[in-house]
Design a protein that fits this description.
single chain, 372 residues, alpha+beta, 10-stranded mixed beta sheet, transmembrane, MacB_PCD, ABC-4/HrtB_transporter
Length: 372
């Protein structure tokens, strides 16, 4: 009995690790796509030859939205900025992802708030994700200016796990211009200042222009019209998702799949060893069953039930551990019903397969062995 319980415990821990790894990957995907899915863009106009603004850096003139707005089929345009920056609060470093909202055409109504309100002013207001630890009414110092937290959002983090701090485009440009004087001199010397969002010409620069097309408009036609300019790249929402999932996250997905496969095989080996050992210890009982006329399928069923019971109990323990511990993790661990369903089927199949060695040994037992 103790061996059975310990095996269930071990399988439960291994399966909890598997659920955690899959959940971590799902969480990273969710965080990577949270802005792409939420901002409501049909097309993204970014720097020519780049795959920005999420997979790599992009810088376009801040007045590019006016040129894009004149294209046939375009309903509305918004400017977009996002970059990571580390600040210091009360002597402690805090890294956040500054995300610019093009007020007043965009008040941030697509951001899921749990407290406060959306933007009502073009300057000095901010909406912070709850992971940053700010509350409505807090005032934070970013560079030379003080910003008031007017709203608190939930689930708004970037692919690195840094909480998003939403400010207006004007404020995002000002914050991004905060460089030590020595760094500004280096930027000028290296002629890289024009590539930094917020610097450049008189209007500054932004990461991308968000395009919403008219109802019924052919997005491919609009996209081709803008791409013919030659100085910008145009990406659809599907392009952005493809670049992130198969580009930046592709290797991570393969690696997690390899670890998951390895752990499942370890579970299979543990169950097989336990069931085989238990069968060896019950050779006398098995031979007695055969002596009184028990059919092979009865013995096979008993062994398979034991293996399936270990897998089932281990899975229940793993699910209980996962839903108890993972919500307390600092990064999002997204446990989906589809993942649990697939893992359950795979584990049960492996458990039954693991009983093959024990079944083979049990079928080799002769009824006369009980008399030995």
């Amino acid at each position: 009995m103790l061996r059975f319980v310990l095996t269930v415990f071990g399988v439960g821990l291994l399966m909890a690790s598997t659920i955690g790894m899959l959940g971590m990957y799902r969480g990273i995907v969710y965080e990577a796509l949270v802005v792409i899915d939420g901002v409501g863009a049909d097309l993204w106009v970014v720097e020519g030859g780049k795959s920005g603004p999420f997979a790599e850096s992009s810088a376009v003139p801040a007045n590019l939205d006016r040129r894009v707005a004149g294209v046939s089929g375009v309903a509305a345009t918004r400017r977009f900025i996002q970059y990571n920056q580390q600040f210091e609060f009360d002597g402690l470093p805090l890294r956040m992802s500054i995300t610019g909202v093009d007020f007043p055409s965009d008040r941030g109504s697509w951001i899921p708030l749990i407290a406060g309100r959306y933007f009502q002013s073009n300057r000095y207001e901010a909406i912070a994700d709850k992971t940053l630890g700010f509350a409505v009414g807090d005032e934070i110092r970013l560079g030379k200016d003080t910003y008031t937290i007017v709203g608190v959002s939930t689930g708004q983090v970037d692919m690195s796990g840094d909480g998003l701090l939403f400010v207006t485009i004007a404020d995002a440009q000002v914050i991004n211009q905060l460089l030590p004087s020595e760094a500004i001199l280096l930027n000028r010397a290296a002629k890289e200042g024009r590539d930094r969002m917020g610097l450049g010409n008189d209007t500054g620069s932004i990461a991308a222009v968000i395009v919403e097309t008219l109802p019924g408009a052919d997005k491919d036609v609009v996209r081709d019209s803008i791409k013919r300019w030659g100085d910008v790249e145009v990406l659809t929402k599907q392009d952005e998702e493809e670049i992130l999932l198969n580009g930046r996250l592709g290797k991570l997905r393969v690696q997690i799949l390899a670890f998951t496969t390895m752990i499942l095989l370890i579970c299979c080996a543990v169950i097989a060893m336990t069931i085989y050992t238990m069968t060896i210890e019950k050779v006398a009982q098995i031979s007695l069953l055969k002596l009184i006329g028990a059919r092979d399928r009865v013995i096979v069923g008993m062994i398979a039930q034991q293996a399936a019971l270990i897998g089932f109990c281990g899975l229940i323990l793993a699910i209980a551990i996962s839903f108890t511990i993972y919500p307390r993790f600092p990064r999002t661990v997204l446990i989906t019903a589809s993942d649990l369903g697939v893992l359950s089927l795979v584990l049960m199949a492996l458990s039954l397969a693991a009983s093959w060695f024990a079944i083979r040994r049990a079928l080799a037992v002769r009824a006369q062995e009980v008399l030995a």
